[in-house]
Amino acid sequence: MARNGTIYAGLDIGTTKVCCVIAQVDHDGQVEIVGIGTHPSKGMRKGVVVNIEGTLESIQAAVQEAELMAGSTVTSVYVGMSGSHIQGFNSHGIIAIKHHEVTEVDVARVIDAAKAVAMPLDREIIHVLPQEFIIDDQDGIKDPLGMAGVRLEAKVHIVSGAITAVQNMLRAVRRANLEVTDIALEQLASSEAVLTPDEKELGVCMLDIGGGTTDIAIFCEDAIKHTAVVGLGGYNVTNDIAIGLRTPMIEAEKIKRKYGCAFSEGVTEDETIEVPSVGGRAPRVLSRKILSEIIEPRVEELCGIVNKEIIKSGFWEFIPSGVVLTGGASIMEGMVEIAERVFDLPVRRGVPIGVGGLVDVVSSPIYSTAVGLILFGLRGKDQGRFYRAAQRSLSKRVTQQLAAWFGNLH
User: Fold this and answer.
1) pTM: predicted TM-score of the whole model, two decimal places
2) CATH of the domain spanning 197-351, picked from 3.40.50.970, 3.40.50.300, 3.20.20.370, 3.30.420.40
């Protein structure tokens, strides 16, 4: 089926599911979601590929489902990157302005100076994200081009990842006959879909709670200030349910999705659930409150770890907008109430906004990253002057390394 406009695709390869979202973008930049595909994830653990064949199978199934719905064929995708190997830190660069007027060359030089940090051989820079520029002690400058001065400084946020983890992800995607347009940090992509400009300007913390990891991103003054990854997610809750109720993992996941509630005070004693047993034993009928009392401590632990991470980052006082929860695990009833209790801040659940088309379908936290990857690609295209100049695509660098490696084998 022929469509007017450019086709973009975001591929979210998570620990529990692979999600592909296809969008049509017209000449005015309007994003219309036209295809969605999801498939249980095989071969992933805590955001990292542990079985390429299993990951490949999941990618192909999700992409085919999205293509069938969209009536279009996908040849290239934006891929999300997460996992405990991801690390983020802030850096600072200073240069002299050659002709007393800031040019694109000067911006590229100061960003190169900011990212000139010692990096272990097994790690690679994924993003260099400008926070602000300073000209002769005048701070808060977002676009310094054309301004006069003698000294230019740049504050940036650098995100790095394990090169082998990135290579394995790219191998799985390319074996599915897909070209990787670019790689994006998953919480950076999700923020494009669920946060409002006002929240980013005033200061907000976004938590993308997935199956294996929880991704943290703190924004203030419309710039990303801090990123981190916590190795806890929805899978840990499922595991607790399986052990606490003595039921298989598959059944525990079903119970969590259908009856799970993280806020035990909101569950009455007379609510009951049927729990399948292991070893062919007869199912049991238990109080739903027992289930909630298993889930609540794990969610409190997760929020507590995130709270400590925010305090350690030094940006606790910079998030007056509060916390935004997104990701598949944030759907569970009671998550917002527990988060508000732990963080003592306003908390809301974030879903993709600012898109058209299949809005009713994508209005769920599970699609935040995949939709955000498309918006991330558009943002990079629109801000190409120095936003994209600030980072040379990691996917291209890895492609070159892989090509050289395969070339040496012949």
Assistant:
1) 0.88
2) 3.30.420.40
Phi, psi of 256 (to 5 degrees): -60, -45
Q: Where in the chain is the domain with CATH 3.30.420.40?
A: 197-351
CA distance linking residue 117 with residue 122, whole number of Å: 14
Each residue's pLDDT tens digit, 127-180: 999 999 999 989 999 999 999 999 999 999 999 999 999 889 999 999 999 999
Euclidean distance between CA atoms 410 and 407, whole angstroms: 6
For residue 356, give Cα distances in angstroms to 31, 38, 173, 266.
6, 19, 27, 35
CATH classification number, 87-160, choose in 3.40.50.2000, 3.30.450.40, 2.170.120.40, 3.30.1490.110: 3.30.1490.110
- Dig out the tokens for 102 from the structure: 């800031």
What is the DSSP pairing of strand 6-13 with strand 76-81?
A: parallel
